[in-house]
């Protein structure tokens, strides 16, 4: 059973972490690390760090600079492997299953509980007590608890937007050209009208691109840990603790029916499910208008920076937060790591050292970025050097949210100087699911999860991108889900949620 600690237990945890700073007697794991409280390894340790990103031409130069810091402070060096978005789950699953090629990585698009229950990652609680004091202070005990599976912490969330809004990103030049009032588009009806304008006036432009074949991952429900498959969800931002079959709701039917109409009207990219490009790439190439997006403060600045084309956004679904959002990217230590103590020490440094984070996210100062002002957190406001943009940088700053803690680092130009404080406010004011803090364990219905996941893969994205007619396909989809055992999953998920809610007195 996964649950948040009570306030009293959180206090005890923090006290134990703080007191651990003065301890020097206990080791954890089988690596060659120094005793508790010691910072440096006795021998130079080399660790494999895996990260989701397209490869960067100047990676080796950047990692060399990072290793100068980590070697001096910890006697540790890292080797970084970048894996693209489309291959990340498959390749990291293979790495974790084999126990080779990875010590540290963010668990992404795979439920944290799945990786923990499969024995692919190790419990971190004792290592946090010994070597993660700074990390806990940087992230906060509440968010540390979101990485709990059973009795142990298995993953550490990143310093980022821990809530999400949903909406649509679009090219500003085309929005301005056709007087599209993007700041006041708040419904799908209004968005559809704007898209029809593009379709009628720009026949060679794709109005809606589903990035990598996925139109939108969520539209206001709490997936309760099943972000990719939605096997039992809470509707309406999780306002009620009633687990339902998303694929049998009127909400889902109405949404995919609308998307089918859009597809037939030429608003959505043809053969969308097989698209391997992201929206920004096609917007920059001039062949697309926009696409649905997971929004946060400064998203338009981020996309403009990444693709060199001015991007604006329309927010349609307001910001909300679920446990799944917090667990979406959680750093973990592979069960195959021979040096878990060193891995935790390195992780602690990445969460607390601005120099390390700035290098890993932004690259080399004066080569990949320049300082143009002062940020509120004591760091700098930065931008590309003259003549450089995301298309010609040897270390384009993408995926900063997946690195351990971008909030201790620089702020990109175009965002306010207090951008990280704005992000914190975004997290704190978002609608919170009533199930916030609950983590679902699917181990009792593992066979049903496998079977239903295969059914979802067969129909869901094709329905969401409008390629299949819901009147014909949805009944077949629902019938196959029933046969695969989705009712068993929902029953188990509801039972766990009820128990958790009783313990939380919800």
UniProtKB/TrEMBL annotation:
Domain spans labelled DUF3502: 435-502
Name of this protein: ABC transporter substrate-binding protein
Species this protein is from: Paenibacillus chungangensis
Entry-linked Pfam families: DUF3502 (PF12010), SBP_bac_1 (PF01547)
Keyword Signal among record annotations: yes
Signal peptide from the UniProt entry: 1-28
UniProt KW keywords: Signal
Domain of life: Bacteria
């Amino acid at each position: 059973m996964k649950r948040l600690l009570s306030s009293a237990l959180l206090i005890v945890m923090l006290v134990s972490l703080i007191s651990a700073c003065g301890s020097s007697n206990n080791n954890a794991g089988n690596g060659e690390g120094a005793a508790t409280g010691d910072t440096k390894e006795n021998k130079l340790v080399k660790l494999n760090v895996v990260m989701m990103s397209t490869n960067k031409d100047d990676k080796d130069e950047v990692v060399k600079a990072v290793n100068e810091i980590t070697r001096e402070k910890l006697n540790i060096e890292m080797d970084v492997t970048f894996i693209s978005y489309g291959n990340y789950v498959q390749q990291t699953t293979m790495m974790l299953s084999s126990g080779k090629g990875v010590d540290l990585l963010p668990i992404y698009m795979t439920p944290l509980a799945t990786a923990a229950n499969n024995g692919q990652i190790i419990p971190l609680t004792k290592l946090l007590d010994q070597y993660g004091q700074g990390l806990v202070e940087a992230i906060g005990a509440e968010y540390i608890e979101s990485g709990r599976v059973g009795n142990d912490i298995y993953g550490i969330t990143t310093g980022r937007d821990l809530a999400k809004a949903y909406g649509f990103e679009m090219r500003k030049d085309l929005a301005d050209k056709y007087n599209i009032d993007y700041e006041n588009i708040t419904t799908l009806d209004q968005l559809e009208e704007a898209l029809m304008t593009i379709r009628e006036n720009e026949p060679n432009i794709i109005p809606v691109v589903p990035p990598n074949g996925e139109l939108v991952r969520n539209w206001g429900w709490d997936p309760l840990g099943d972000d990719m498959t939605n096997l039992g969800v809470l509707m309406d931002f999780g306002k009620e603790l009633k687990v339902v079959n998303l694929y049998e709701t009127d909400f889902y039917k109405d949404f995919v029916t609308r998307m089918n109409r859009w597809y037939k009207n030429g608003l959505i990219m043809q053969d969308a499910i097989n698209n391997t490009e992201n929206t920004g790439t096609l917007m920059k190439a001039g062949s697309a208008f926009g696409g649905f997006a997971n929004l946060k403060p400064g998203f338009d600045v981020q996309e403009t920076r990444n693709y060199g084309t001015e991007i604006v956004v329309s927010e349609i679904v307001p910001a909300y937060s679920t446990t799944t959002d917090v667990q979406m990217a959680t750093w973990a230590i592979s069960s195959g790591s021979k040096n878990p103590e060193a891995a935790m020490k390195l992780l602690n440094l990445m969460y607390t050292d601005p120099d390390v984070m700035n290098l890993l996210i932004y690259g080399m100062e004066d080569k990949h970025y320049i300082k143009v002002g002062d940020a509120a957190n004591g760091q700098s406001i930065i931008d590309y050097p003259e003549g450089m943009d995301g298309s010609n940088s040897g270390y384009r700053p993408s995926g900063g949210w997946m690195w351990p803690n971008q909030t201790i680092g620089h702020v990109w130009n175009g965002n306010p100087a207090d951008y990280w404080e704005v992000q914190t406010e975004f997290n704190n004011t978002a609608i919170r699911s009533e199930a916030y803090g609950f983590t679902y364990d699917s181990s009792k219905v593992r066979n049903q999860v496998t079977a239903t996941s295969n059914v979802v893969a067969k129909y869901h994205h094709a329905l969401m991108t409008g390629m299949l007619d819901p009147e014909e396909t949805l009944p077949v989809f629902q019938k196959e889900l029933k046969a695969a055992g989705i009712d068993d999953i929902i029953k188990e998920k509801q039972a766990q949620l009820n128990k958790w809610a009783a313990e939380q007195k919800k």
